[in-house]
Write a structure and sequence with these properties.
Length: about 450
């Protein structure tokens, strides 16, 4: 019997080839990577606000790239808490089952404790866009707030009474919540000495007409309206039914198109405090505005903040190279300011943005217009922190600039100038004095 031909193949090589073929076969049959989910949690009854936040998050998700942890893409899904405790619990169960990579929250003021508790149990980054800032006593570690703190915006609103509002007598209307009381308290504590506080009135929807009469009796030039959500809409409905048309200055978060559509005539000439204008902050802001225009939607307050929050979350996931909370959280909290669609900002250790940049918007002929645009204030009303432009300084007897921003007498230091308008304590409260000076340098 002739000898059978002997194989010259290397057994080791055969095993390697078979392994490679097995890996190739398994890779061809492997499921594609799953998309990441960003959840948006809020009240569906305030449809414009929830839809605006979903739009902003969706635009950021589409721009997030498709490599690394984002290879499967990013989905955005909304969850309706119905503005009630029962609705929130139901929405939270549905959200937890979907296993999101992060949560964007729009809590109503009375539901914030539930949001804080939920952020401790659903262990992913949470970023709230409305309501109170975290305080690290009642709120969990993995919660951030992209917006002004209630105290910070109350101080800014108080500053605005000098410029651009040029007010001499003001009143306050606030919602009967911790958020409303905090904003009202910060506003009244920080009013300049030359501005008179006519009165403070909490809003009660069932007593709308009588509250309007009380506000009118204050005879205030401007009314600071620290309302959001349902209380704000209730107040505007009551005001639309009345003949009185006061000048209103609204707290941060109130400016949205749906409010203007319902009460444009009532709001004519009123002023809104808002965050940074994305159009003024480079390429990212321009990309957001272009995308919103293509969607034929208005650019709401929550749209720009949801866009920035989602953009930062996805950038952190990419930088971390995974969706593990510890790594994502570290990448989400850099020690230095980073630029974005809302300008440069950084989350402080307590979870909020300490010196949040603001803008003012006025209703002119039924539309929001940023205000003032190079507008000179009323003579004698040119503070160093406001957006008004001060009078030209004159030369003193010794050839030095004698007038800084206020009054006709020589002022040797800016601290003295600030003290004259109630923005400096002359060392009695050094932390507050330092905060004011930091704000001046930040706007210089």
């Amino acid at each position: 019997m002739p000898n059978a031909p002997r194989s010259t193949a290397n057994p080791v090589m055969i095993v390697v080839i078979l392994c490679c073929l097995g890996i190739l076969a398994s890779s061809l049959g492997a499921a594609p990577p799953k998309p990441l989910l960003v959840a948006v949690l809020g009240n569906g009854g305030d449809a414009g606000r929830l839809a605006g936040a979903v739009l902003g998050a969706t635009i950021a998700a589409r721009q997030g790239g498709a490599s690394g942890p984002l290879a499967g893409g990013v989905l955005v899904e909304s969850f309706d808490d119905q503005g009630t405790k029962a609705g929130f619990k139901k929405a939270l169960r549905a959200l937890r089952a979907r296993k999101p990579v992060a949560v964007i929250g729009l809590p109503a003021a009375d539901l914030e404790p539930l949001y804080w508790k939920a952020a401790g149990s659903v262990r992913v980054p949470w970023i709230t866009l409305t309501g109170l800032a975290p305080d690290k006593v009642r709120s969990p570690d993995y919660l951030l707030h992209l917006g002004p703190t209630p105290v910070g915006q109350g101080m800014t609103a108080a500053d605005a009474t000098i410029a651009p509002l040029a007010a001499r007598r003001v009143a306050v209307l606030h919602e009967p919540t911790l958020l409303g009381r905090t904003m009202a308290s910060a506003f009244t504590r920080n009013l300049p000495a030359r501005v008179t506080l006519a009165g403070v009135q909490p809003w009660d929807g069932e007593e709308g007409p009588s509250i309007l009469r009380a506000l009118k009796a204050f005879e205030a030039e401007w009314i600071y309206v620290a309302l959001n959500g349902a209380p704000l809409h209730g107040f505007m409905k009551a005001l639309a039914a009345a003949a009185w048309r006061p000048k209103l200055f609204f707290a941060d978060g109130a400016r949205d198109q749906s409010l203007l559509d319902r009460a444009g005539e009532v709001l004519e000439g009123c002023v809104f405090l808002d965050g940074p204008d994305p159009e003024m902050h480079g390429r990212l802001g321009e990309q957001l505005i272009d995308a919103v225009e293509r969607a034929d939607k208005p650019l709401e307050v929550v749209t720009s903040r949801a866009y920035e929050a989602t953009r930062r979350i996805l950038a952190a996931v990419n930088a971390a190279g995974s969706t593990q909370l510890k790594h994502v959280w570290t990448a989400l909290n850099p020690t230095e300011e980073s630029a974005g669609a809302l300008g440069p900002l950084r989350f402080e250790p307590f979870g909020g943005v300490r010196l949040y940049r603001h803008s003012y918007w006025r209703v002119v002929k039924g539309e929001y217009a940023e205000w003032p645009a190079g507008l000179l204030p009323t003579p004698g009303c040119g503070p160093p922190i406001g957006f008004g432009l001060p009078r030209m300084a004159t030369l003193g007897d010794k050839g030095k600039l004698g007038v800084l921003t206020w009054g006709g007498d020589d002022k040797r230091t800016i601290e003295q100038d600030l003290y004259e308008i109630g923005l400096n304590t002359q060392g009695k409260h050094p932390d507050l004095d330092a905060l004011v000076m930091a704000e001046i340098h930040g706007r210089a």
